[in-house]
Amino acid sequence: xxxxxxxxxxxxxxxxxxxxxxxxxxxxxxxxxxxxxxxxxxxxxxxxxxxxxxxxxxxxxxxxxxxxxxxxxxxxxxxxxxxxxxxxxxxxxxxxxxxxxxxxxxxxxxxxxxxxxxxxxxxxxxxxxxxxxxxxxxxxxxxxxxxxxxxxxxxxxxxxxxxxxxxxxxxxxxxxxxxxxxxxxxxxxxxxxxxxxxxxxxxxxxxxxxxxxxxxxxxxxxxxxxxxxxxxxxxxxxxxxxxxxxxxxxxxxxxxxxxxxxxxxxxxxxxxx
Amino acid sequence: xxxxxxxxxxxxxxxxxxxxxxxxxxxxxxxxxxxxxxxxxxxxxxxxxxxxxxxxxxxxxxxxxxxxxxxxxxxxxxxxxxxxxxxxxxxxxxxxxxxxxxxxxxxxxxxxxxxxxxxxxxxxxxxxxxxxxxxxxxxxxxxxxxxxxxxxxxxxxxxxxxxxxxxxxxxxxxxxxxxxxxxxxxxxxxxxxxxxxxxxxxxxxxxxxxxxxxxxxxxxxxxxxxxxxxxxxxxxxxxxxxxxxxxxxxxxxxxxxxxxxxxxxxxxxxxxxxxxxxxxxxxxxxxxxxxxxxxxxxxxxxxxxxxxxxxxxxxxxxxxxxxxxxxxx
Lengths: 273, 329
What we know:
The structure holds 2 protein chains of 2 kinds. By secondary structure, chain A is mainly alpha-helical.
């Protein structure tokens, strides 16, 4: 009885800590349902007692093109990243190329370059190529957020695929490409899922590249949609927070559907097992 | 802070039978090198070709262009025509003499140090707490990931409204205990604190998750033995948990350092580095020089950016060294 009592207290403490941690998220939800005339009330309402859907109506009216652009850019970045990283991971894990260590090292270093510096370099290049404010340009730039991580995840994962399977395929006369496509890739489904989830999330959340390379264009992602909202000195915070809620949906979906992949992605390698 | 995790790619599975592969140092591969058929080498590099090309085109070339920007006197016109005169280190001299340099340096150091300390301390405390067995422990720990998964613009705008001087919930809560409203984002003495608070909130989940998985590799028999010897919880933490967690802590802090140095989104969205440069760091200063004004100063902007790259790479290489050492030991 005593033991159960102690666990109960821990659960209560845990709930309290989680509530404190997630309070900003709750507040975003609360404000997104608050009426304009209650927005500047002092003290503010802790619950949306006289809730309104005006904020969400504004999202539907004004933010759908931004959301669509972000979706396209996110999916494009996922395809590009997986296409680049999966073969590289296979080669580094199983084919032991000469100089592979150097390449892996360069990928690790690439991951540490601040995005703002990359953005400035991309800006200079895209300006001369006429790629500014273009969707493909932003897809390529966003993929730099994910490719090094993706190669590392694929390498770590594919190292665990039994070499016998690959050798058996080669004995049957499969080419290297065929072995990769029909044996290695199907077995790496979890790695593909992890990489795709993180790539989509980073691309969807990207602000640095969006604000430098896509600002003012016809196709702007949702991060810029929110940024313009705030920047226009907009006082309709329910609309701003409603957009923020909608922009958070991919993160929520990922957390609910793929929590084990997320935890695996965070810890991959940061801790040696 | 967009924390990403890194992994020293295993050159080959040393212990692949139990699923745990450890990184072998490059020289270890020489023994097997003669056994590698050259057709496999061709195949390997064919698979690596896209990513190698990609690294050259989309990492090395932008970095080169950035270096080039910092060494020439670019104006909007010469930016388009590409005939900016070479000026050597003039841009770097401009930046060093700029009155913003001192404050930006101080703010970058303070921001990074304070964020790291609190993210790590809170993350560790939570990791120890959630390492206990109680109902909902795993679910609540998963919920702690939310701040880390949210787009930074979402976190930044939520905090902006919470910290609003007149209508923010934070000041409303403070007034209930009799504290006067604080101008979180609009007063120069509070703006840096505000962005630090928001960034700590974003960084705690990463520290929690990584430290928690580090805790699980500490054998519980150690704690049982210590408990038998009469060591209390506090004592057990300082004599077992903390020392045994040191390798994981080092990795977490170094990685956090590299990623906190380059935090840009949060600060820019919440305060734009202001008011009056009071929350300007190298990252936001570089952006403001290049993109934040009507008349862009690409050269100095790139120069500031390159200083940041050097700092990030120095700590990044230290991180890789520490990690490699740990992988070998």
